[in-house]
Each structure stands twice: as structure tokens, then as C-alpha cells.
Amino acid sequence: MTASPVTVEAQIERWPIEGGFTISRGAKTEAVVIVARVSRGNLTGRGECVPYARYGETPEATLAAMLSVNGASLDRTALQTMLPPGAARNALDCALWDLEAKESGTRVWDILGLGAPKPLITAYTISLGTPQSMAEATAKAAHRPLLKIKLGGDGDIERMKAVRKAAPQSELIVDANEAWTETNLEAHICACADAGVTMIEQPLPSTNDAALATIKRTVKVCADESVHDRASLKGLRERYDAINIKLDKTGGLTEALAMANEAYVHGFEIMTGCMVATSLSMAPAMIVAQHARVVDLDGPLLLAKDRENGLRYDGSTVYPPDAALWG
Q1: Is the pLDDT of residue 307 over 90?
Q2: How far apart are CA 111 and CA 248, in angstroms?
């Protein structure tokens, strides 16, 4: 796609979460997203992002960054140097992909030279709570083949036991969101192994995860907050077995695809994750997720309602986007 001037519009949207969402850092009752619209001529592409306070992002600053490129001669290559990895670049990058698909009259995967994406099994998230409340939520979701359990430090061993009892047949992955410490790390990993957990996501703070290289990892460990784009892969292989690729971290589909290719070369397994957001955020990630070991694209399932023309979810099976949504 040749760089040429585009019109960029963007707006903050708020989508209520069904019943709330709690992780180790706190709880929220709505998903705050920003939708970018990139237009050239009479065609418009859309992309969505979720600013994340953990990475110093706010909706207002993200919106301003997106609007700063309005009127610029812009394509995906130019965008990689105009904005850093993060939410703002993600929405614009995905909008440019959507625009190119519209301009070419094809789908994004055709532009990439890939086959059409296939339906995938996504994880379904159980929010952090007491062992009893998490067991109750898990029991309602025990028919799902893959559950992602949010943990928070103290009490996690009891939480894992309660969840496993409530869902004896489901595959379990857990996400500590940096809440464990070097002191309790090995005990928690052993408890995960005992519960049949198949992957642990970001157990230690990203600034203090060196201990992962010195212990026996009896359960595979996946980096999330410790990895953002290709530049952050260096040195992670000793500490992690897998990486979680989220478009809001990489700064869009362009970098996410390149990152996935490089991660495979280094021997990482891939998890494709998301923030709590609408189907417009999930749609581009479906392309990255096609060869992922773990798919975690349940954001719309956690909302009170999704946007029009959203992804089709049949239980835990998520289907590729229609052109009316994206790409």
C-alpha cells in the first residue's frame, strides 16, 4: 500500500462488562476502548485498542496520539516509526489493514498470502475472587474445554484446588498478573502441577522475573507483561517457555505477525491474548491465533453486549470475522 494522506478520526467508547472483571491489580465494570477510523477517498478502515494503565497508557493520551497522525501520508510501514508499540499504534495499524482490504476488494488474509482463518477454541476467563466464588463461576463454565483462571497471590493454592474440583474435565491455564513472589513461586508452580494446569502466565513482576531461569519449571510459563514486541524477546527464552502476543502490546497486526515468526525461531510457544474489548479488537488477532498453542480471545464474551456484526461465538468456538466487521 503506497503512503498517501489519510483522514484519521477516533473516539473513546465504553462497553459494560457482564458482572465485572477482577484481576490481581483490581476490578472494573466496563471496557474502555478507542476506535480509530482511517479514511481515504470514500473508504474507511476501522481498528480498536484498549489503553492499559499498567503500561502508562490513558484513554486521553492514546486518543491524542492517534489523532496526531491525521492528514499524514500514512501506510503501515510509515506507522511503525511514527508511533511506538502500544494501543494507539494498534488501532491505527488494524484500521490501515481494514482500509487496504476494502481498497483491494479482498480480505486481509488474501493480502498476506494466507489461507482463510479457521474457527478456533478460545479460553474463557474466570475472574479473581474467593475460592468459593471462583468455584461457583467455574462450575457454570465447566462445559468449556479451556478455562483461564485469574490468580492473585495469597490464597492461590486454595483457589486452584477449588477450581479444579469444579471443572474436572477442562484444560486449565492460570494468570497471576505478576502477583507471585520468589518466595512462593515454587510452591505455587507445584500446586499448579498438582491441579493439572498446563500453562502459567506471568507469575512474577516483569522487573523481577530472573528466578524463572533458576528453578525447574514443571509447568510451562508464559510471558505477558515481560514481552511486548520483537525487541523484548531477547533474553526471555531462559525464563519462559511461551509468549503472549497481544496486539495492544505489539502495536498492531503488522508487528504481531513478525513477532510470531521470530518467536517460533527462538522456540517459544505462542499464546494469542486480548484485553476485555469488543469483537473489533479480536478480529485481527484471529489471524495471529491460527497457529497459537493457546488462544485467549474471549473479550466479547465478558461484555454485557458486543458491537454490531461481532464475531460469532458458539460456546468456546470463535469464528473468523465477516468483512462487515473488519478485514
Answers
A1: yes
A2: 22
Q: Are 310 and 264 in contact (CB under 8 A)?
A: no
Query: Exposed/middle/buried for 221, CB within 10 Å: 0-12, 13-18, 19+?
Result: buried
Indicate the pairing of strand 317-318 with strand 120-121: antiparallel
172-183 pLDDT, tens digit per residue, is 999 999 999 999
Cβ(103)–Cβ(40) under 8 Å?
Answer: yes
Residue 274 and residue 246 in contact, taking contact as beta carbons nearer than 8 Å: yes
Asked if residue 281 lies in contact with residue 50, where contact means CB atoms within 8 angstroms, the answer is yes
Q: Which residue has the cell 513477532?
A: 259
The yes-or-no verdict on residue 1 having pLDDT over 60 is no
Q: Structurally, what CATH architecture does the domain formed by 120-318 represent?
A: Alpha-Beta Barrel (3.20)
Residue carrying C-alpha cell 497457529: 291
Distance separating alpha carbons of residues 150 and 11, to the nearest angstrom: 30
- Which residues are the active-site residues? 150, 246
Q: Which class does domain 4-111 fall in?
A: alpha beta
pLDDT band at residue 2, thresholds of 50, 70 and 90?
low
Give 207-239 pLDDT, tens digit per residue. Answer: 999 999 999 999 999 999 999 999 999 889 999
Q: Which sequence spans correspond to the domains of the chain?
A: 4-111, 120-318
Residue 241 CB coordination number (10 Å):
19
CB atoms within 10 A of CB 78: 14
First to last CA, the chain: 15
pLDDT at residue 124 above 90?
yes
**∠6-322-324 over CA atoms, to 5°?**
45
